[in-house]
C-alpha cells in the first residue's frame, strides 16, 4: 500500500474560530491509515509548508527496524525541510 501525504497550511475551525493550521492532505488531524499484521505501508510525506520543518509520528505502530521514520525532529527522525519529502516504509509486524 503506497500513499502520498502533503503537509500544508489550511484555514480550520477546530475551536469554532477559523485560523491557520497545519494539515495533512487538507485534514487536521491527518488521515487514518489502516493496516493489518504482515502489511507494508509506504508513505511519501511532502512538506509544503513555507518555513517549518516537519517530523511524522505514527501513533500505535511499532517502528522496529525503521526508527528514523517516526518521532521527534532531531531525536529519532531527521526533519523534513520545507519543499522536500521523505518516504516512510513501515512493515507491520505486530498489531
Automatic annotation (TrEMBL):
According to the entry, every stretch annotated as the Plastocyanin-like domain falls at 7-92
Q: SUPFAM superfamilies, alphabetically?
A: Cupredoxins
GO function term, MF aspect, one: copper ion binding
The residue ranges crossing the membrane are none
Source domain of life is Eukaryota
User: Which N-terminal stretch is annotated as signal sequence?
Assistant: none
Q: Which residues form a coiled coil?
A: none
State the InterPro entries in the record: Cu-oxidase-like_N, Cu-oxidase_fam, Cupredoxin
Family membership noted in the UniProt record: Belongs to the multicopper oxidase family.
Name recorded for this polypeptide: Multicopper oxidase, type 1
- Please tell me the species this chain comes from: Gossypium australe
Name the gene for this chain: lcc2
